[in-house]
Amino acid sequence: MTGTYTPTTPVYMAVMPYDVEPERDGDVWHEAEWHTATGTVRAMYGGDTGIGTLNEGKYVIWVKPVTAQEEPLIRSGPINIT
């Protein structure tokens, strides 16, 4: 990645089944926000959100910050919903 990311950089998040990579411009991306105290990205999930409620299973969270120079897809480690 070559861009500079700040709390004003638009950022999106996708929660995908473990073996699935999101399409760069697919409808799986949801607005997220920077958590400035930790430098991480967060988004709400559940019945009243764009991400929705997650069923039991293994997922990967993908983050896409958007700058004029690039839109990298950044993969996190897996999460398990039980």
What can you tell me about this protein's structure?
This protein is an all-beta fold and 82 residues long. The protein has no helices and 6 strands. The strands form 2 sheets. It has a 4-stranded antiparallel beta sheet with strand order 2-1-5-6, with no helix packed on it. The protein has a two-stranded antiparallel sheet with strand order 3-4. β3 and β4 (40-42) form a beta hairpin. The termini are far apart.
Features:
single chain; mainly beta; two-stranded antiparallel ribbon; 6 strands; globular
SSE layout:
Blueprint: E1 11-17, E2 30-31, E3 33-35, E4 40-42, E5 57-65, E6 74-81
Antiparallel strand pairs: 1-2, 1-5, 3-4, 5-6
How would you summarize this macromolecular structure in one to three sentences?
The protein has no helices and six strands. By secondary structure, it is an all-beta fold.
What low-confidence regions span 5 or more consecutive residues with pLDDT below 50?
none
Q: State the helix count.
A: 0
Q: What's the main sheet like?
A: 4 strands, antiparallel
How many beta-strand elements? 6
Task: Give the terminus-to-terminus CA distance.
Answer: 34 Å
Rg, Å, rounded? 13 Å
> Tell me, what's the shape?
globular
Spatial ordering of strands, largest sheet? 2-1-5-6
Question: Element order, helices and strands?
Answer: EEEEEE
Instruction: Label the structural class.
Output: mainly beta
Percent helix, as a range, is: under 10%
What amount of the residues lies in strands?
35-45%
Averaging pLDDT over every residue, what do you get? 88
